[in-house]
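Margin note: ligand = WTA.
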Amino acid sequence: MAEREHLEALLQESRLFPPPPEFAARANVNSPDIYAEAARDRLAFWARQAERLHWFRKWDQVLQWDPPFAKWFVGGKLNAAYNCLDRHLDSWRRTKAAIIWEGEPGEERVLTYQDLHREVCRFANALKALGVQRGDRVTIYLPMIPELPIAMLACARIGAVHSVVFGGFSAEALRDRIRDAQARVVITADGGWRRGGVIPLKKNTDAAVAQAPSVEKVVVVRRIGDEALVAGHWTPGRDLWWHDLVRDQPETCPAEEMDAEDPLFILYTSGSTGKPKGVLHTTGGYLTQVATTTWMVLDLKDDDIYWCTADIGWVTGHSYVVYGPLALGGTTVMYEGAPDYPDRGRFWQIVQKYRVSIFYTAPTAIRSFMKWGEEWPARYDLSSLRLLGTVGEPINPEAWIWYHRHIGRERCPIVDTWWQTETGAILISPLPGVTAAKPGSATRPLPGIEAEVVDGSGEPVRPGEGGFLVITSPWPGMLRTLWGDPDRYVNTYFGKFGPTVYFTGDGAKKDPDGYIVILGRVDDVISVAGHRVGTWEVESALVDHPAVAEAAVIGRSHEVKGQAITAFVILREGYRPGPELEQELKQHVAQKIGAIARPEEIIFTADLPKTRSGKIMRRLLRDIAEGRALGDTTTLADPAVVATLKAQYEEKEAGD
Ligand code: WTA
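Resulting structure:
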């Protein structure tokens, strides 16, 4: 659907879906009073939420705001792993399933809280034996297997800072992240399953570590068990098998008393310029807010089987596969592989098998399900579901309605949750027992959160008008800085509207009911299947190829992925455009960054539209790629360039 029609649909969207009464009656939050309560005294509200956690020592001050630097629960002492494990052990939850895991080939593993505690302690002791200390960084590059949350919680237990790198990233992307964090230890696996094939994680790790001198040890989980994956990729003394390392470790390990503001993790995310940014989250505020939102938005209760389908390599997996549900003593489902392996019913088979009651996924996945057809979910018993969620990108109303009808069977509320790697936890979302949902809208800021849609000068826009989404006061789970680069933190997030107003990088509008509709990124970040890719990163990868003189990359709307990458490329003298070179360049980008950054199409061109000061006008490239009338071209150095490019693009599209 063209963006314009899509916008029209959003502008007219007026269907409201109030919470079903039987849902509201049992919901964790079922009165709108919570908004007023939070507004009356925001800090008291967050202090009450922090009481959900176990503190070794209570805080002296709720918030210390030295704009744009925040500290929450100052003076408080706690441990994230203790909160996710130990405190559940002295109740019936000791033998409750903490993690239900299913491998892509079909194996099952259930870890009770007792089991998870033991495995975390053993691995925490192993890390200590390797010399890892409080504050050290540990990079984790693992598939979706139980060892991934075990490794994260083991780091948290001893006060080491984890940096999880998504298993789909390339060796080079991994190297850059290890180097930036100066990690001493890398944890990986021989490989991981994906759609029946094996991703060679150890091989990638070797290539990365060869250029990352900070790394002393590499711990390897035997996931696949194929010797060929490690033969020739093993450095004695540096590389250690996970199972050898934990074999004789004690089954208990004290949880370090961490300061509320001690770093918990770094997670890299793409920005509009420069290398990926190391978003830093700390312990007390982050854990308070993920636990609170898991309770308030995802409505997690003791008898739920909860499944968030995100990979833990992204922030959604950190907050809502691992920390949120475990902090509340919930049961979290983890699935290793692809949704269409061995067939397109895999997700629904998992829902049926484990009787999943809360299901949280991404719009791009929902659009794939729509394309595959409603007959797939129709074959399975989905009657256990009671709540659905989405995250990561705007959900178009058609997809929302499809989800409601074919997955929720018109019984389940849907929470469209807006947030970011930087925000740590959900900030804008319906409360499923309170808010009337509207397809395509994340509705309103949660209790305790202050967000606004403003124009370029920072003034709130009128209902119906578009503007920039900003957060106007600090929140507990906010990033504290960018690892090693506080200036970039200040400039990126607080450079536009001053030090007290956090700029999200998203465009949004308020509809006539005051509901917020997110329109997507306004910076040069592309959202491919909900994953952030910076145009700059892809352009750098392209110009790294000897054939490429210059490249400009844009996101163009895509039926399933939301956005897909289109690259405009100027070749160097002596290179001829053609399908082979196009393939080679796509492959080159995938190898440099990872498959998610692979361009969908490459347009060879002799020239690019630039302003007189030499800045590429991506807006015009987007107009061309989406077949729109061209916007204002008067600032171009040479207006003829776009006309030529447009004709050429249309010719190529007609040919494909
Ligand atoms: C987008 C993912 C519309 C947005 C948790 C944001 C959304 C970026 C929504 C962050 C939503 C996330 N509706 N857009 N419900 N949720 N986004 O850091 O553009 O991977 O800035 O965090 O995803 O992506 P990130």
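Residues 269, 314-316, 391-394, 416-421, 442, 504-506, 518, 520-521, 527, 532 surround WTA (CB under 6 Å).
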